[in-house]
Amino acid sequence: MIDEKRFKLVDTKTGKEYEFDGIKGSIGPDVINISSLYKKTGLFTYDPGFTSTAACNSKITYIDGEKGILQYRGYPIEELANSSSHLEVCYLLMHGELPSESDKNEFEEIIKNHTLLNEQIIQFYRGFRRDAHPMAMMIGIVGALSSFYHDSLNIEDPEHRMIASHRILAKMPTIAAMAYKYSVGQPFVYPVNKLNYADNFLHMCFATPTKEYEINPLFSKIMDQIFILHADHEQNASTSTVRTAGSSLANPYACLSAGISSLWGKSHGGANEAVIDMIDEIVLNDLKPKDFIEEVKNKKNKIRLMGFGHRVYKSYDPRAKVLKKSTEDLFKDLKIKSKELEIAKEIEELALNDTYFKEKNLYPNVDFYSGILLKALDIPTTMFTPIFAVGRTVGWLSQWKEMIEDEEFKITRPRQLFTGNKDKSYKKVPDREKKSIFNLLWLKKTFLNNQ
Ligand code: ACO
User: Fold this and answer.
1) Number of C-alpha atoms within 13 angstroms, CB side, residue 84?
2) How far apart are CA 141 and CA 132, in angstroms?
3) How far is CA 40 from the centre of its chain?
4) Distances 236 to 172, 232, 241, 310, 339 between C-alpha atoms, Å
5) Is 202 left (phi over 0), alpha (psi -120 to 50) or beta?
6) Confidence of residue 20 (pLDDT cuts 50, 70, 90)
């Protein structure tokens, strides 16, 4: 796949020239292979946030951010979201092709047979404060799984990788649902294997020992669609975190726990919760969407329009398009009016017609409508990001597996542009200048709260 030597770097001071290969992708931008740059020139490239850097090669997910295209293993997201099921998509992402009927049945059977958590793991929840965020619990519980499966922790063994992946994929809905149950003080509800992936999750979240949860097929379809739409998104922050953690040959439970941590931030998966917080704030303060947009545009306020903007999409996020339609269908079906939806639509309309957002190519992303949709399904806001994590689990696992099986696999070790001090001499304590870095009041407060 290596193109002819077509890139030349010229040091204009010395006139020295260095050549680099281009590498062609099957679709999308080609890359310049600069892996020999340091050896040849003694220089690094500088690209904070990786805005122009392909950190790996991958066959899993393709995004065209300009055209708003997303494909899993070549299949358009719209077709998968409307016609497939999450477990089928999981098979596709993990194995590269849609399953035959018997492969699908076998795969579903395997996943269903791993949904239970070890009873000892369930004790871990009780160590968390009752008001702990479910994401905090998920980080801990998923990491703790590493201590339970010594039989399948040799990540250099493909069979172990597969068993661990099946376990994680199967247990993630159970882990998320139990985190929710614990946070609301209800007894844990065990998985029921005759239910499908989405139904089982809803059942574990909302059934109680006193009352069965009646599954509404529409809710179930939407939950499954949400899982599909979140299943993978190439080298985003959490996936890159999983790859980085895995590059040191850490076990997959530890890697996934790192991925969940990275997802939690409001610039990433935490944005779905932040969208609802933002709309609640608008309602609570009786703000007009128009005025709120003006506040966002005033950079001094440092307010961002949550659910808008994306590093890769410079047009409408295709996942947001699917979710907007599902949101409208759901509200029509339930014959309910939602103030949140009205506000969201007004904000979207205003932003899409505003020069600030147009010039910066800021469009709704997946989180803009997913929050409103989840709220309509009566899902509490603290569960929005855990649901994203349940959906994304298969993407993390597929990318982790692909990385380990890659011939070019190496530990991730970025370099840096050092801008700090150099060659300082050690001074004894009395010879040092006083420099107060702590706010005493704040210190006192944290000391008092530190139980
Ligand atoms: N509201 C207002 N202004 C914005 C927004 C926003 N949501 N997003 C970007 N901008 C502005 C920035 O202020 C910046 O303006 P400037 O060029 O005048 O300085 C410009 O657009 C570019 O923004 P960056 O932060 O440099 O873009 P980046 O690609 O690094 O960030 C991100 C992408 C983090 C998603 C950003 O758009 C954002 O913060 N959005 C809101 C949070 C959100 O919805 N996150 C979910 C992303 S989707 C996902 O992870 C599933």
Assistant:
1) 27
2) 13
3) 37
4) 20, 9, 8, 10, 32
5) alpha
6) very high
Average confidence (pLDDT) over 276-286:
93
Q: Nearest residue CA, atom 15 of ligand 1? A: 360
Count of C-beta atoms within a 10 Å radius of residue 21: 17
Using the Cα atoms of residue 353, residue 280, residue 336 and residue 371 in order, give the sign of their dihedral.
positive
Q: Is 170 left (phi over 0), alpha (psi -120 to 50) or beta?
A: alpha
For the segment 253-272, the average pLDDT, to the nearest whole number, is: 95
Is 297 near ligand 1, meaning CB less than 6 Å away? no
Residue 363 Cα, ligand 1 centroid: separation in angstroms?
10
pTM: 0.93
378 is a catalytic site residue: no
CA 70 – CA 319 distance, rounded (Å): 8
Q: Which atom of ligand 1 is nearest to the CA of 275?
A: 44
Do residues 358 and 180 make contact, with C-beta atoms less than 8 angstroms apart? Answer: no
Amino acid identity, position 211: K
Q: Determine whether the shortest distance from the Cβ of 314 to ligand 1 is under 6 A.
A: no
Span 164-175, pLDDT tens digits? 999 999 999 999
Return the residue whose CA atom lies nearest to atom 44 of ligand 1: 307
DSSP for residue 121: H
DSSP state of 4: E
Q: Which residues pair with 8 in a beta bridge?
A: 19
pLDDT digits (tens, 9 = 90+) for 375-416: 888 899 999 999 999 999 999 999 999 999 999 999 999 999
List b or e across 277-294, with b for residues whose CB sees 16 or more CB atoms inside 10 angstroms. ebbeebeeeeeebeebbe
367 is catalytic: yes
User: Any idea of the CA torsion for 353, 354, 357, 361, to the nearest 10 degrees?
Assistant: 40
pLDDT at 442: 67
Q: In what order do the strands lie in the sheet with 69-72?
A: 61-64, 69-72, 75-76
Q: Helix (H, G, I), strand (E, B), or coil: what is residue 110?
A: helix
Rounded mean pLDDT of 57-84? 97
CA 132 to each of CA 80, 126, 250, 446: distance values in angstroms, whole numbers, following the listed order: 35, 11, 27, 18
More confident residue, 419 or 375: 419
